Amino acid sequence: MLDASLLNFLRSSIRSTWALELLLLLRKNAPQAFSPSELVLELRATRSLISACIAQLQSVGLVACDEARGCVYAPASPALAQASDALARAYEERPVAVITAIVATPNERLKSFADAFRFTKKDD
Q1: How far is the C-alpha of 7 from the C-alpha of 83, rounded, in Å?
Q2: Which among 40, 57, 61, 90 is least buried, having the fewest CB atoms inside 10 angstroms?
Q3: Average of pLDDT values for 84-102?
């Protein structure tokens, strides 16, 4: 089982195993910057997937990107750096638990879509 603070970090910051792999790659190689094309090759993923993961990690303050340099691991606060370190350790020790936690995190868009098809009782 993962610690509650790590689970909160995962639920709020990491939306997919692809985002996890991207974060860990950038973290491991910091301060080296990668272009999106290099990340596509490193992770063997599509450009659109990498772009989505980069945008998501940027939005939570874990990655910084610019056109000239590329993307680099750059946590916006010491708390994010500590959470990333804890995540990396947990993934080394219990990869299945980390992946399970990511996959089990409710996806708001999917929930909204499913709710659109929910039948409601008709008022009499």
Answers
A1: 10
A2: 61
A3: 95
Average pLDDT over residues 90-99: 95
Q: Could you tell me the two tokens for 3? A: 């610690």
Q: Using only C-alpha atoms, what is the Rg of the chain?
A: 17
Each residue of 29-44: pLDDT tens digit? 999 999 999 999 999 9
Tokens standing for 9? 């970090």
How far is residue 5's CA from residue 9's CA, in Å, rounded to a whole number? 6
Cα 122 to Cα 102: distance, rounded to the nearest angstrom: 37
CA 60 vs. chain centroid, Å, equals 9
What are the φ and ψ backbone dihedral angles of 111, each rounded to 5 degrees?
-65, -45
Nearest one of 83, 108, 96, 111 to 4, comparing CA atoms: 83
